[in-house]
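hey so u asked for the seq, here:
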Amino acid sequence: MNQKEQRFRDAVQAYEAKLVGYATFLLHGDVSRAQDVVQDCFFKYWRTDCKVEDTHLAPWLFKVCRNRVYELVRKNSRVSFLGEEAELDVPDEQTSCPFIQDDKERLNHCLERLAPRRQELVRQKFFLDLSYKEIAELCGITVSNVGVQLHNAIQSLRKCFEANEEER
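ran it, structure tokens below
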């Protein structure tokens, strides 16, 4: 196996699942379409001869993914993008604990109340485990702006979660 093939395999292994999750979120749970988007991302990576630097690979792949979703949305106006019905796919623990399920539902409720941009930033940071620098490159904003936006999003989530706790 040559170096290009190895870099490609490593990229697919490291990022495929995260990219599918991200695209699925952006496409409101349409896994099939998300998989097509991710396939396009990796095809584009292959066409670059896998020469994207490792330090820039994650933001590059996520940006290509995001742009491809935008293209699909523009082409097909029937696809709603980050609307109220979007549900963040919180990893499901294999447990029947009602407290965990309740917290998951409350978290989804609170996430839905965030602005679409903040929902996306929270997903990139906490569900895709991207660094502030990677998020900044992906979204075309400064690292400090990522920090401010995430701080505000977390504050909003905390307030919403606490308000829901008081209602119980």
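The mean pLDDT is 81. DSSP finds seven helices and no strands in the chain.
lmk if thats what u needed
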